[in-house]
Input
Amino acid sequence: MNTNNNVYTVLYTALIVVVVAALLAFVSQSLKGRQDANEKAETISQMLTAAQFGSKAEFQKIGNAAVLQKYADEIAEAYTVNLAGEKVADLPQGEVFSPKLLKRQNYNIKGGANATGEPEIPVFVFKDGTTVVPIYGAGLWGPVWGYVAFEKGSSTIKGAYFDHESETAGLGAKIKDDPDFQASFTGKQAAFDKTPVFQIVKGAEGGLADNQIDAITGATMTSQGLDAAINTWFAAYAKFFLNNAPKQDCCGGEGCEGDHENCEKHEETEE
Amino acid sequence: MNAKLKETILNPIFKGNPITVLVLGICSSLAVTVTLKGALVMALSVIVVCGISSLILSLLRNTIPGRVRIIVQLVVVAMMVILVDQILKSFEATYAIDKQLSVYIGLIITNCIVMGRIEAFALGNKPWPSFLDGVANGAGYGLILLIVAFFRELLGSGTLFGIDILNRFGYVPNNLVILPPFALILLGCIVWVQRSIQKDLQEK
Output
């Protein structure tokens, strides 16, 4: 057989490609359910880690089923909000936002050609009052995302967990791998009434403000990407958090500068 | 088993090791050897990809048009890599490892060992020896990976397969060992040891 014939060559390559494509499509479809289940458990364990229900390693050890159970035990409500901070819809029972959905909402927040509609971003409230919100953005090599947990009814950060697709191991990857970096968020304040809401700063010599943390040495681009991601998303959640701030903070009469607007809103809703 | 087949299997493990002698697959051996578990999964993945791609291409070897043979090889290897990646993602036990290895599973496609053995061996030999050659080369690669990972996890994290070995004795993990340059130093030492044993590798 002459295998160097042009027609043979074209038909042969076409056949190989079609066979391989069909096989891969079939495998991908049949394994999709399992992969999605793994991804969901991973997302949930990241949120639980941010909310300080345990460490990521512990959740990995106890397995998917136990992670889902823990989430079901602890979650109070999960819903989406719009930029005005108003509740849009409840999330279906046990559903979470995968990084893919976060990516779509990230486009919606930023607007532009990739936007598919108005942002509807998720809020997860646990039974102890801890509120977890996601963030999503671009690192150096690929997307970075994560979850930030706030103390009940306040803008004090309780904990955070970040993940990435392909940041440099040992440098940018520290946003995920370095517990000290994630721990440095705990106790910080998100200044929802200011811009920027939160800052990851390099070499803070004069000490760090309440809404600042130290960047990662040698990972300037990843730190900047995470900073941008956090600010984009925190700004989108700003109204939500300001609306939900405890009333004595804004309506107590003292030290309530800049919050009068929310004050009025509260009164309006009460009438 | 005849002598030639034995040689096919044993040669890549030591005498003609793909990493230390052929110096192929260096990139991933620096990247995925921080933990033994990661190295083991990577090694098994490469063995599977290498073995089965060699087998498939050896079966097809008389039908492949000569002018597009590299493309055909690439398609088959890529298919195997994607299959391995998809399967690793599907099981709870391997999902975390797959996440940790991230792009490096996908990058097996560019691992010169796979394409190198197909081009040099599988296209000129019968399926069974080709399969063994692929598996043996994967194993030779995996062996070096495990040796490097053993030292890096032990000295860099004080653990082996995640089990605490040195930390209980007050060992402070060495961060240099975690960084890729140390893997290169270790690889250099392994090549040094091999060349001292195997004198015919030394340049005059």
In short: The helical segments of chain A are 6-50, 56-74, 99-110, 174-177, 179-183, 220-244, 247-251, 260-270. The two ends of chain A are 89 Å apart (CA to CA). Residues 248-271 of chain A have pLDDT under 50 and may be disordered.
